[in-house]
């Protein structure tokens, strides 16, 4: 008998020992929660009794519950990782996911914030209760491509306004990296720090603070962008935290940055992860081919 709660607790300890990020832990918690709901509804309690047919039933349950292909794919990946951990620890006899096919994801890439959309965010941010902070957060997010968790974790000491560099101390996988930012982003951060940043205590060194002077959270950043999107009449998905990150990647590629440099700035562990952003550039690539076509220069 192996309960889901027991395996999940062991898996979380393993992930923490491997220094996985809180975002990774949250991902697995969400997937495990879905599996737990399905098991409760169907009267199952022992993971060792699960079969490949059960996983297929779980997959159909997710789909019938209205989950989009991307959400279904994510939940199944999380559950697969959990159960395969059980196999590795010799708590489960076999891999029930061995022949399970995950749903095919849509070919359309997710939204990437466009320059005119970011400009609209900056415009409406002037009218909010914290205009300097909001503009600084939007500018720095779009100008560096930082993840939401990385942006809100920045301290005052992480930002070098003189050299135009921000140091990410706790990136994905616990990695540290340095990312440059432009003059306008630096000016926005400098204005916020000098005129609007008011920590609740002197020992609060986090750069971006909420209305009571405590550190912002990733959820707080998401809510801020949703409020600005509504005020600007923009789809929320187009200017969500990760849409700003995608927008940054697309724009620096358009302006000539090579994918190797992009990999370093985004903190990707593999080049292939950064190359995905080239999907957004078919027209740009076509224009480049017009001027650089090897065949036309014979």
TrEMBL record:
UniProt domain Tyr recombinase: residue ranges: 104-290
Annotated SUPFAM superfamilies: DNA breaking-rejoining enzymes
Core-binding (CB) domain segment(s): 2-87
One of the Pfam families matching this protein, by short name: Phage_integrase
Protein name: Integrase
GO biological process: DNA integration; DNA recombination
Keywords of this entry: DNA recombination, DNA-binding
Record-level Gene Ontology MF annotations: DNA binding
């Amino acid at each position: 008998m192996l309960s889901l709660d027991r395996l999940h607790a062991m898996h979380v300890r393993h992930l923490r020992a491997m220094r996985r990020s809180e975002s990774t832990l949250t991902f697995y918690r969400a997937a495990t929660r879905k599996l737990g709901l399905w098991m409760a509804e169907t009267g199952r309690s022992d993971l060792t009794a699960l079969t490949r047919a059960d996983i297929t039933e779980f997959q159909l349950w997710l789909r019938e519950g209205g989950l989009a292909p991307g959400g279904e794919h994510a939940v199944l990946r999380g559950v697969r990782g959990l159960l395969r951990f059980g196999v590795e620890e010799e708590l489960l006899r076999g891999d029930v996911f061995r022949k399970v096919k995950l749903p095919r994801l849509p070919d359309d890439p997710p939204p990437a914030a466009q320059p005119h959309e970011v400009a609209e965010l900056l415009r409406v941010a002037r009218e909010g209760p914290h205009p300097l902070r909001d503009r600084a957060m939007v500018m720095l997010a779009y100008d560096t491509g930082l993840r939401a968790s990385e942006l809100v974790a920045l301290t005052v000491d992480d930002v070098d306004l003189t050299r135009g560099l921000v140091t990410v101390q706790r990136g994905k996988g616990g990695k540290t990296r340095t990312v440059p930012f432009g003059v306008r982003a630096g000016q926005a951060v400098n204005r916020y720090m000098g005129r609007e940043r008011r920590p609740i205590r002197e020992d609060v060194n986090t750069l971006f603070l909420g209305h009571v002077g405590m550190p912002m959270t990733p959820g707080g950043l998401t809510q801020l962008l949703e409020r600005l999107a509504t005020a600007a009449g923009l789809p929320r998905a187009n200017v969500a935290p990760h849409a700003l990150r995608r927008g940054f990647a697309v724009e620096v590629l358009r302006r000539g940055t090579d994918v190797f440099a992009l990999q370093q700035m985004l903190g990707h562990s593999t080049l292939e992860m950064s190359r995905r952003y080239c999907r957004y550039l078919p027209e740009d690539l076509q224009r480049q081919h017009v001027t650089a076509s090897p065949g036309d220069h014979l």
